[in-house]
Each structure stands twice: as C-alpha cells, then as structure tokens.
Amino acid sequence: MSNVLFIKSSLNGNKGNSNILGNLLVAKLKEEKSANIVERDLAADALPHLTQAEMASWAPDSNNQELASFSDTLIDELKASDTVVIAMPMYNFGVPSTFKAWVDRIARAGVTFQYTENGPVGLLENKKIIVVAARGGIYEGTQKDTQSQHLKDFFGLIGLTDISFIYAEGLAMPDGEERMNAAKQAISEFKF
C-alpha cells in the first residue's frame, strides 16, 4: 500500500478543473495501488500567510511549540507520503496564494533542506510528485508558464526531483471541453 498526499487549491472546490482531474488521478492511484489518501484542501481550509512569529517558532530554542506545530503537521504529512498529487490551477500566471502559504511552511532549513558550503541540499527523498495543471490558456513550454519551473525549483530544494506534469490547457478556449477530455484520457493512461 502506498501513501498519497493530495493537495488541492482550486477556489472552485470540486467543480474546479484541477480538482476534477486530480480526483480522477487519485481514484486511479487508489484502485491500482490500494493507496491510502490524505487530502489537504488549501482553498477550503486556507492557511494564513506566514508571519515572522510563526517562522521564529521553528528555531530550536523557541518556546512556542503550538505555533510551530502548524508547520510540523504539514511536513509530517509530506514525509509520510510516497506520492504527492497536486491539483494546480493557474491564477494570474502563478500558483494560488494558499499553495504558496503551504510551500512557505514546508521549506524549512534544517528540517526539509539544509544549507551547505555548496548551497542548499534537500533532506527529503524517494517521493514521486505528480502535478495536474489546469489552465484557461495555453502556457506549457512558454515564458508565461511560471508554475512548472517554480514547482520544480521548490521540490528540488527539498530533495524531490521525481516530478511529472499532466497539463490540461486551453480550458477557457472554444474547444475547452475537448481539451478537458484529452487530459482525462492522459490520466487514464498515466503509469505510476
């Protein structure tokens, strides 16, 4: 049995294209791998922006374990997973701010990465990241696709480099329904 962390961030809930496609991928994982799913919906249960007080609570000499436990819980969910599925909508050429709030609590020096004389080194390993990216326009491979590189850079920072993308693009265009069906087909053919 594998453990899957499923991260959602669509403001449209289960009607959001990224969540629809992410749910299909997770159902396939559950069926094919008897996966145990831990779901974190960052839109329904939004994380606040990171504050200096919370970041200070991560210091080894901090007395504020209650505030630090917020980040600790998110990191524990990530560490316990074998696979991370991210249902990623594109908002204004970037990731949703709720996802960025999650990232800010996952990237912790000394916990998920460490600084060395040669730069940062990730402390996590052996996890597969699958991003289901849903977009109204067509951006893959262009300079306007700031999401893909951002996600590669972030997960690379913490040591996770096995990352795959399933793109559903042009969903707001006249042939959007056909493009959505093509993404569903890509999910049905995806090999874990």
Which key features would you list for this structure?
single chain, 192 residues, alpha/beta, five-stranded parallel sheet, 21% strand
List the helices and strands and how they pair.
Elements: E1 3-8, H1 17-33, E2 36-41, H2 52-56, H3 65-80, E3 83-89, H4 97-106, E4 113-116, E5 119-122, E6 128-134, H5 146-157, E7 162-168, H6 176-189
Parallel strand pairs: 1-2, 1-3, 3-6, 6-7
Antiparallel strand pairs: 4-5
Helix pairs in contact: 1-6
Compact description:
The chain has 192 residues and is of the alpha/beta class. It is built from 6 helices and 7 strands.
Shape, please?
globular
Question: What is the helix content?
Answer: 25-40%
- What is the overall number of helices? 6
Got a strand count? 7
What portion of the residues fall into strands of 2 or more residues?
15-25%
Distance between the termini: 13 Å
Spatial order of the strands forming the largest sheet: 2-1-3-6-7
Low-confidence stretches: none
Report the mean per-residue pLDDT as an integer: 96
* Largest sheet descriptor: 5 strands, parallel
The secondary structure category is alpha/beta
Task: Give the C-alpha Rg.
Answer: 17 Å
- Topology pattern, helix = H, strand = E: EHEHHEHEEEHEH
